[in-house]
Amino acid sequence: MTDGYKNLETNLIHAGERTPRIEGAVNLPIFQSSTYEYSGDDSEQDLRYIRLNNTPNHLVLHRKLAVLENAEDALVTSSGMAAISTALLSVLEAGDHLLIQDCLYGGTHTFIRDDFKSMGLSFDFIDGQAPETWKEKLKPRTKAIYVEALTNPLLQIADHTAVTAFAREHGLVSLIDNTFASPVNFHPADRGFDIILHSCSKYLNGHSDVVAGALIGKAELVEKAALKLIRLGGTLDPHACFLLHRGIKTLAVRVRHQNAGALSLARFLENHPAVKQVNYPGLPSHSRHKEATELFDGFGGMLSFELKDGAEKAKRFLDKIQLGIIAPSLGGVETLLTRPATTSHHTLSPEARRRLGISDGLIRLSVGLESAEDIQADLDHALGA
């Protein structure tokens, strides 16, 4: 196994790799075997089987992801939601209570809202930017606090320093979804977070051809989650592991290009007469721009914006887009646009979306690797139309 190096770019390619290389192969082969010959080990964890997440394709990702997030251990899962649900169910048990940021990914919101009660779990939503209000929502069995590095789709930024301080003060496990920022722009472990979550379908893979997740953090918490995942069955297939492993190696060059493109496009949109508001932490107009500058090494490839004429104008705008692809998900090499009210947050009621600030006319833009000049021309054409 290769230890971590000083720089992220080198770790993306070399950290965690097998040495010596298997049969001299530069790329780790796909181990398309569900089971492995028994070697007489005493521990159940030493058995080799796909569902146990310990094939060579799993293990190289675990080592690499831990290094990338400056954490002790990591675990890959069959999807981002598998990572989120496994993490929460491994730190909570019946009767426990969770504090969770109010504006976040719709799948997470729906899981909390619709499934917690049947499992004997309770929760309270919190304003991630108002730490003075969190203590009043504490309960005797509050066990964890959950936020996103950058929220989906409004690009809000919680007070991350306050989150980890609050967790330490009250003996809580702190969890953060770092999908939007990626390890290129933000390292939550350096800020004291216990568990870091990713939808690897997005930036970590970066090619819109894999659904995967990751759970990264303190070794004892990852080990506990790994046992839970074995029982829940959310294991990543070895071929998907191979594709994710391949995609990770170009993460730095992709994300930095997307950082630059998104900032350029956010500035263009903010000055366009058809646009009412742009949500992007790299803009001085963002409510937490100063904090974003201190926290992040880049502002990310995601932004969202409102058109002045609302939902109907947004629909016409998307109909006129030519270069960008109208599709859910994000973080790929291609530029993707979507209306969260009809995709990522469609399971929320219209009232709930309005309460969170997600209007029917909100458009989310995932900036790809195309020329920012060409993307801008496409946006300008569609806005004019």
Explain this structure:
With 385 residues, this protein is an alpha/beta fold. It folds into 2 domains: 241 residues, Type I PLP-dependent aspartate aminotransferase-like (Major domain) (Aspartate Aminotransferase, domain 2, 3-Layer(aba) Sandwich); 133 residues, Aspartate Aminotransferase, domain 1. It is built from 13 helices and 12 strands. The protein has a 7-stranded mixed beta sheet, sandwiched between helices. The chain has a 5-stranded mixed beta sheet with strand order 8-9-12-11-10. Strand 5, helix 6 and strand 6 form a beta-alpha-beta unit. Helix 11 packs across helix 13. The longest helix has 20 residues. The termini are far apart.
Total E-strand runs: 12
Sheet of most strands: 7 strands, mixed
* Cα shape: globular
What are the segments in which pLDDT stays under 50 over at least 5 consecutive residues?
Answer: none
How much of the sequence is in beta strands?
15-25%
Mean pLDDT: 94
Series of secondary-structure elements, N-terminal to C-terminal: HHEHEHEEHEHEEHHHEHEHEEHEH
Reading side by side through the largest sheet, how are the strands ordered?
1-7-6-5-4-2-3
Please, how many domains?
2
Looking at the overall shape, the CATH architecture of the largest domain is 3-Layer(aba) Sandwich
What integer value in Å does the Rg equal?
Answer: 21 Å
Q: CATH superfamily name of the largest domain?
A: Type I PLP-dependent aspartate aminotransferase-like (Major domain)
CATH class of the largest domain: Alpha Beta
Distance between the termini: 55 Å
Structural class determined from secondary elements:
alpha/beta
- Tell me the CATH topology of the largest domain: Aspartate Aminotransferase, domain 2
- Percent helix: 25-40%
